[in-house]
Amino acid sequence: MKYVWYKKGAELLKEFEMTQVPEHMAAYWYIGQMGMVVKGAGLTLCFDPVLNDLRRPDGTSRRNYEAPFGGSEWKGPDYVICSHDHADHINLETLLPLHQANPSLRFIVPAPAVRTLTDGGIVQEAVVGAKAGEEIVLGNGAVLYPVAAAHETYETDEHGNQKSLGYVLNLDGISVYHAGDTMVTGQLIEDLKRFSPLDLACIPINGVDTERHERGIIGNMDCRDGAYFVWKIGADLTVPMHYDMVMGNLEDPLIFARYMQEMYPGKKYRIMQLGERGYLAKQQKESCGREPAGERKFGHQVVSRML
Fold this sequence. Notes:
20% of the residues lie in helices and 23% in strands. It has a single domain, classed as Ribonuclease Z/Hydroxyacylglutathione hydrolase-like (Metallo-beta-lactamase, Chain A). It is globular, with a radius of gyration of 18 Å. The protein is an alpha/beta fold. The longest helix is centred in the C-terminal third of the chain and has 11 residues, at 223-233. The strands form two sheets. Strands 13-12-11-10-9-8-7-15 form an eight-stranded mixed beta sheet. A seven-stranded mixed beta sheet has the order 6-5-4-3-2-1-14.
């Protein structure tokens, strides 16, 4: 499949800046692979951006389409949140220019990946190490909840910290789940049920197979598992991701659409164009025993407060 940008460059950056988000709403933009920009509550956040080329040892590009803009061109993000230490999720060629262009920017990464950033030239004060089950309070009352991810299995460092994470973001009463890279597990479904219903779930759908294993590619949930997963966790809207950027590791999102239509009719999903914007509005939800936003605990103490 061929992928082209609906918006990119200065036009897309201007849209990030100029988009006005009313109270109890959020805007979001798909920027390829697992990259998602979210704006609301006076904050701009980005999950898993890759704004540089990815090259093979022979120098040829692995990207199926160009980056929308360079990290040095983007002025304004408050937080960059990364799921795990693979080049299409944490890449210093993206993160260093972003840091240089935005000195107040904060990076949130799994605790085992902190040294990747600090050894790479990002100051310690700008990096927060996330741990599964320990919430992080952001500015303006937003809260981030790290959730363990199995890519393809749960893997920890010598201190017991998960190397791969997903995140639930509560932003002005709107909940966004960014899965990072993960398989579907019973533990993950249980971890997320307490946040149901989620307003938006961003999930990978590229799957796994023997041929890619032989090339050293670690897999994710596939289209069928992804459809089942978002039904089980009670996601209101799902955006499938991680199917389009890296040559040799692609998937057809229409297969995900087919499973959603056939197996879970009535469940909402959206296949986004590169650089396309969407909106979320706070919904009237039934009480499920959750505390007010900004006070709810995932199960442990608040580990960071950045106001």
